[in-house]
Amino acid sequence: MAKEIKVQIILGSTRQGRYGEKVFKWINDLASKRKDFKVESIDLKDWNIPFLNDPMPPSMGKYSDTIVQKWAKKIEEADAYLIVTPEYNHGYSAVLKNALDVIYKEWTNKPITFVSYGGYVGGSRAVEQLRQVAVELQMAPIREAVFIPMIWQAFDENGKLKGEEDYNKRAESMLNQLIWWAKALKEARSKTK
Ligand SMILES: Cc1cc2nc3c(=O)[nH]c(=O)nc-3n(C[C@H](O)[C@H](O)[C@H](O)COP(=O)(O)O)c2cc1C
Questions:
Q1: What is the CATH number of domain 6-192?
Q2: Please, what is the end-to-end C-alpha distance for the chain in angstroms?
Q3: pLDDT tens, 106-134?
Q4: Nearest atom, ligand 1, residue 90 CA
Q5: 47 lines ligand 1 (CB under 6 A)
Q6: Where residue 193 falls among pLDDT bands split at 50, 70, 90?
Q7: What global pTM score does this model have?
Q8: Is the distance from CB of 42 to CB of 20 less than 8 angstroms?
Q9: What's the whole-number mean pLDDT along residues 60-74?
Q10: Which ligand 1 atom is the nearest neighbour of the CA of 15?
């Protein structure tokens, strides 16, 4: 029974010198310690997904590009998603939007949550927008998320998240909720296939 749920943690920032890597490492290390699900780390920088170019909408399920086909297979494997997102101009990154848009059914009927970071509001505006996108993809965005403000001051010189104990508590609670939904929706999907 253990490890039956698979969570993909996706890093949605790809620029040189990104702070996202520190956040990604923190949440991956924390989530990987859990015994009630399996974690897979996905860095969008490793994927180079081309901009959406198919003549038919991805919701039709036909992806002509080979990288997009591989991406669809990878995303299909998971039961839940945790996206690590920066905030760019009150939204999220273009590379993340494209990764979400190029496929469709592989995301549907699965829960999603977010760890965001940025300036004073910790990337929360990016998360609000991402929740709307998730609904359109027929996903279940959950309530709990983690927001890390003032990202350039959030980690010490050893790469440790300042105030880690509090953040860990919030992250564990978020993961509990994510796994609750992952199990419930996995069961529901198995009955409707
Ligand atoms: C193009 C751009 C726009 C930004 N806009 C915002 C913003 O609207 N709100 C905010 O809190 N931070 C904003 N920031 C600051 C980022 O949140 C911060 O630079 C963060 O480190 C970005 O994530 P990354 O380092 O993983 O790319 C912006 C940064 C960039 C590069």
A1: 3.40.50.360
A2: 21
A3: 999 999 999 999 999 999 999 999 999 99
A4: 8
A5: no
A6: low
A7: 0.97
A8: no
A9: 97
A10: 27
Cα of 141 from ligand 1 centre, angstroms: 23
Ligand 1: distance of its center to the CA of 6 in Å? 30
> What CA–CA distance (Å, rounded) separates 53 from 74?
20
Cβ neighbours of residue 136 closer than 8 Å, sequence gap 6 or more? none
**Partner residues linked to 141 by β-bridges:** 112
The tens digit of pLDDT for each residue in 5-55 reads 999 999 999 999 999 999 999 999 999 999 999 999 999 999 999 999 999
Angle of helix 94-101 versus helix 124-136 axis, rounded to 10: 10
- Write out pLDDT tens, residues 127-162: 999 999 999 999 999 999 999 999 999 999 999 999
Q: Domain ranges for the chain, please list them.
A: 6-192
Compute, in angstroms, the gap from residue 118 CA to the centroid of ligand 1: 6
